[in-house]
Amino acid sequence: MKPGMRKLSIYLFIVAALLVAAIPSVAGAQTPPPDTAIPAPSPVLIHLGRTPVVELFDGGGGLPYLGSPTSYNAGDWEPALRKFHDSGVYDTELTEIDKLAEKAVLRSVHKGDFRSHKGRFHKGHGRAHAAHFKGRKLALVLDIDETSLSNYDAINADNFTFGPNSQAEATNETGKAIPSTLELFNLAKQNGVAVFFITGRRENTRAHTESNLTREGYVGWQQLFLKPDASTETTVQYKSGARAAIEGQGYRIVANVGDQYSDLAGGHEDIGFKLANPFYFLP
């Protein structure tokens, strides 16, 4: 088997193991839902180019699953989206994927970055030293909006349009920590994995963005990438370039978490994790 194929096979084997661990077995299920019931989405593996990405299956190109027991059309989205958020379904879906990302990070630390070799991991005096594998430091990349911080209050106030509240969410420091992502952030730090933020927010919002992250409990990240004010790059070009720059600092990105496919496409990560976001789409 060629080295590249062997590497891909190892990645897919580990991802499959993560998915199997996350999904209850049929034999262990107590009462299966009737054939007429629509099951809640479960984790699936897709690919963006060469990057494996774990997300929740939500019906492909159809309207997203919103946890509603009744039918809804595109024109019904405002009440359906509010129920999706307020009922706890949204938080549940975010947590499910963030927990899989936690497993991927820990596997990288303790088993050597999805491989059979042992990585190096040391703790000392209550603070984790940098985790390494074959001389490269390990890194986690997080998007900010609807990944690390929720701007739902602004989104809801604008009736799910890109209105004035959403346009000012960075300068107004609207964001509230997404609990499961904050847990992932802290777990990575505690295990010696450096955390980088890559956001599509512009550089002129840096002070407000740093203030908002810190206020919500994100303390001790390695670096925050914001898009240059004059940049005309696409999101994929900018974010994949930022990940390449992280690799240039001697890191291996073991997991990349975002709510948009454009957060994850373009390579320079071992695996991506796609969080639910039915509120907006960004190419």
SSE class = alpha/beta
Number of strands: 12
Query: Beta fraction of the residues?
Result: 15-25%
Treating each run of at least 4 consecutive H or I residues as one helix, how many helices?
9
Oligomer: single chain
**Largest sheet, described in full?**
8 strands, mixed
Protein model, in words:
The strands form 3 sheets. Strands 1, 2, 5, 6, 9, 10, 11 and 12 form an 8-stranded mixed β-sheet that branches. The chain has 283 residues and is α/β, with parallel strands linked by helices. The protein contains 9 helices and 12 strands. Strand 5 (132-133) and strand 6 (136-142) form a beta hairpin.
List keywords for this structure.
9 helices, eight-stranded mixed beta sheet, two-stranded antiparallel ribbon, 12 strands, globular
Quick overview:
36% of the residues lie in helices and 19% in strands. With 283 residues, the protein is an alpha/beta fold.
Write the layout of secondary structure elements.
Blueprint: H1 3-22, E1 43-48, E2 51-56, H2 77-86, H3 89-111, E3 123-124, E4 127-128, E5 132-133, E6 136-142, E7 149-150, H4 152-157, H5 164-167, E8 176-177, H6 179-190, E9 194-202, H7 206-215, E10 223-227, H8 235-248, E11 251-258, H9 261-264, E12 272-274
Parallel strand pairs: 2-12, 6-9, 6-11, 9-10, 11-12
Antiparallel strand pairs: 1-2, 3-4, 5-6, 7-8
Helix pairs in contact: 1-3, 3-6
